[in-house]
Amino acid sequence: MRQTLLLHSTRCAAYGLLHIFLLLAGSLQAQAPGDLFLQHYKIPLPSIDNHNTAVVQGKNSVLYFANTKGVLTYDGVNWGIIATQTTPYSLAIHSKTGKIYVGCRENFGYLEVDYLGRETFKPLQKPNNEQKALQNLAKQQSKSFGKITRIVIQGDVGFFYSEQAIFEVDLIKDQIVKTWRPQEDQRFAGFFLHRKQLYANIAGVGLHLLKPNGFELIENGDYFREMVLQSSFDYDAENVLFTADNSWHYLFDGKEFSLFYLVAGEYLRASQLSFAQNLNDKLFITATLTGGCIIVEKKTGITHKIINFQTGLPDDEIYGMTLDKLGSLWICHAKGISRADLSLPVKTYSTYAGLDGTVTTALALGDTLFVGTTRGLFLLNKVSQYEEVQAYIKKESRFLQKIQTITKVVKINEPTEETESKYYKHSLENNLARQAKRKITFKETVETSEATQVSKAEEVKKYNTIDVRKAYAMTSIPFVFNSLHGVGGKVKKLP
């Protein structure tokens, strides 16, 4: 029932707008794929912000979000919140049991249903007396493990990661099996799994392989000593793909590393890559802090789709995402939650800039598309130069705010009559007389300037150089409509 509700509520708006796109859908497919249809959600619960760092879908079709206030839930109709002991940062689902695991600050556990049918958060293991003693000792020695920012599940084993510790958990027994920590003066800087082997990057040292006697630096592992490994997934049967905070993708086959080149690589480096996530055998998606996200073809590195502010996303700062059972991509960003339907045959073309007026007709002749509007006839062309789209970058004005510098000069003339001052020295009349003679003048000047707004992300690259603007524009706007000169007024029909 919940799955039906989710399908109905998320798709009804798309089909309600179907008539807008049918005119263009068939004729545009050969020329340009169009942009994905996006639907945006605002969280209606009080005191709940938009910072959702992770999202998964349960076997019950409910969506779960790691929100700063707890685990946020959405079943397609109703929103709810599940309280956690500390702030959650990561989520993962065990495919066999359907149990959802939650990584928090100094804590981690899973969701379970209580005797009243309510979902609640349960810490992974209630400590016995011996464990309490160990925990107290750890606290005394400042052995906290910080935020669990990643959970990777492989089979019936889960790995819960923080910069201070990596925990291996038996997901059938829900027990911590092993714990690894870096040396006292070190910290972890990311990890990944390759064929059930754990590789952990240690800041300032490099990439290590976990062996029975502990972590051992691998060959060429010091190459990653200044990097943070952000995310990873199984690229194919032989390779794991992982991302680093230098905005590059890497492939690793267990012996050698290789760069995975993306056509939109310059765009990603300008937008600060955040993480990547697998979609299916042919596609994966990579997210950024200032440029939205890009769906990439695995075999070629070609951009399949781009979802950013220019193409309809409310904000370009991506926190987390997941692919649901219906083929929709749920995206958590700084302005809330958006849903991109990857399976819906309807695409939107309104994001292609250049059209003026209301669309009245369209005609495809081979690879050429003509669109008639109430203001004239337009031709859809592929962008080849930055100058063609420079005027259409919506992000430029969004990242500028006006700053007013107000300068006030106050001049006060005090009365200086000696005798009057002495005579009325302590009287009320003197004070009133002095105030009457006191002259106060104001001179105000206002200067207005433009300043760049800074994203909420800890580290961002501002759109303040021509190279970055070019990368954003050329990737976000692959096609534009150009007006055909000599054809003005309303175009009612094309032959």
Description:
- The chain has 495 residues and is α+β, with helices and mostly antiparallel strands.
- It has 2 domains: 2-341, Methylamine Dehydrogenase, Chain H, CATH 2.130.10.10; 400-452, no CATH class.
- Helices cover 16% and strands 42% of the residues.
- The protein is built from 8 helices and 34 strands.
- The strands form 9 sheets. Strands 1-28-27-26 form a 4-stranded antiparallel β-sheet, covered by helices on one side. Strands 2-3-4-5 form a 4-stranded antiparallel β-sheet, with no helix packed on it. Strands 6-7-8-9 form a 4-stranded antiparallel β-sheet, with no helix packed on it.
- α4 (265-271) crosses α8.
Summarize the structure.
This protein has 495 residues and is of the alpha+beta class. It has two domains: 2-341, Methylamine Dehydrogenase, Chain H, CATH 2.130.10; 400-452, no CATH class.
Topology-level CATH name of the largest domain? Methylamine Dehydrogenase, Chain H
Proportion of residues in extended strands: 35-45%
**DSSP summary: helix tally:** 8
- How would you name the oligomeric state of the polypeptide chains in this document? single chain
Q: Given the helix and strand composition, which structural class is it? A: alpha+beta
Strand segment count: 34
